[in-house]
Amino acid sequence: MPTRPLGALTAALAVACALGPSESIAQTWPNRPVRMIVPLAPGGGTDILARLMAQRMGDTLGQTFVVENKPGAGTVIGAEMAAKSAPDGYTLYVSSPNIVINHGLHPKLPYDALRDFAPISQWVSFSNLLVVHPSMPVKSVQELIDYARSRPGKINYGSSGNGATTHLGMELLKVMTGIDIVHVPYKGSAPAMADLLSGQVSLMLDAGATSNPQIKAGKLRVLGVTGSKRSALNPDVPTIAESGVPGYDSSVWIGLFAPAGTPVDIIHQLHSTVGQVLNTPEVRSKLLAQEMEPIGSSPAEFSALVRSELDKWLKVIKTANVKID
After folding, report:
1. Which segment of 30-34, 123-127, 133-137 scores lowest on mean pLDDT?
2. How does pLDDT run across 166-219, given as a tens digit for each residue?
C-alpha cells in the first residue's frame, strides 16, 4: 500500500481541523428533525405562520420541522431556550420584534438579540388591526379616543403579553393621544381574543389572520390599521395615523433565527429554503389572504432590520415609560 509523505499527512490533518465539526454538520444537515421554537401560545398569528412554514420547509428539505410552543415572560422563556441551544441547525427560533423589545423591558435579560442569534430571513411584514367589542359605543379611532378620555382608567385592553407588539402598539397610542386605558396581558393572542369576544376586555390590537373572521361575523368592530398604509383586505378601514393620530406606525414583522454560531452553510441553506417556500403560489396566496406580505430577506438584510428595530423600540419604551412586573 502506498504511503503519504508526513508533510502531506500533516497538511491533510490541518485542513480537517480547520474545517472542524461545523462544516461536517453542514454537509449532512438535516439528518434528523428540526425544532422551531415559537415563544407564544398555540393559535395566534405567529403560531399559524410558523406551522405553515415548518411544514413547507420540511417538505422542501426532506426532513420534519416540529413547532414547539414555549410561551411566557413576554417571549423571554422561548428566546432564552433558543439562544442557549446547540448551534447545530436543529433548533430555530421564530420571532417578531419582541426579540429586541425585551431589551428595553428587562434589566437582566438572559440573552442578547445581537450577540446570541443569527438572523436567517424575515418571513413577512404586516399591520395589526385595532378591534373593539361590539358593546363599545365607538365606530372610529377618534370616537374611541374621545370615549376613553371621558372615562380615564375605566376601559381595558388585551394583548398577547407584556412587551408584545400588541402591548407596545397600544402604549404608543396612549402616549400619542393622552388616553388612560388599562392593560390586561395574556399568554398569547388566542386567549386574549377569547376574552375580547366574550367582552371581558374591550379592545385590542390583533393580526388580521385571526381578527378578520370575527369582524366578518359581526363579533368584532375594526376601527383602524396600525401600519403606514391601508390593508388590502380592509381597504375601507383607515390607518390610525390618518384617523387623528398623525405619525402613528406600529407595523410588525416575523422572521427566523438560529443560535449564534450556527454554521454559515446551514444559515444560507435555510435562507434559500425560506425563499423557495415564500415564492410558491400556494404559500403566497395564503399569506396575502392573512394580510401578511411575504419578504424572504437575506441574512444581512434581516440583520440590518433587527438592529434598526432595536433602536426604534428602545426609544418608544423610554418615551412611553413602559414597565412590566
Report:
1. 123-127
2. 989 999 899 899 999 999 999 888 899 999 999 999 999 998 878 989 999 999
Could you tell me the residue ranges of all domains in the chain? 31-126+251-320, 128-243
Q: What is the mean pLDDT of residues 226-235?
A: 84
Per-residue burial over 273-305, b if 16 or more Cβ lie within 10 Å, else e, is: bbeebbeeeebeebbeebbbbbbbbbbeebbeb
- Gap between the Cα atoms of 256 and 270, Å rounded: 9
Q: Which of 9-13, 131-135, 271-275 has the lowest mean pLDDT?
A: 9-13
Q: pLDDT band at residue 131, thresholds of 50, 70 and 90?
A: very high
In terms of Cα–Cα distance, which of 97, 77, 127 is closest to 232?
Answer: 127
Please give the single-letter amino acid code of residue 236. D
- Residue partners of 50: CB distance under 8 A and separation at least 6: 36, 38, 67, 94
Which three cell numbers mark 214?
370575527
Report DSSP state, residue 242: G
128-243: CATH number? 3.40.190.10
Superfamily of domain 31-126+251-320: Bordetella uptake gene, domain 1 (3.40.190.150)
Q: How confident is the model at residue 25 (pLDDT cuts 50, 70, 90)?
A: low
Which value, in Å, is the radius of gyration of the alpha carbons in the chain? 22
Residue with cell 384617523: 243
pTM across the whole model: 0.75
- d(Cα 70, Cα 40) in Å, to the nearest integer? 6
User: Would you put residue 166 in left (φ > 0), alpha (ψ -120 to 50) or beta?
Assistant: alpha
Kindly tell me the burial class for residue 321, based on how many C-beta atoms sit within 10 Å of its own C-beta (0-12, 13-18, 19 or more).
exposed
Q: At what angle do helices 45-61 and 264-278 cross, to 10 degrees?
A: 110
Q: Which residues are registered as beta bridge partners of 38?
A: 69
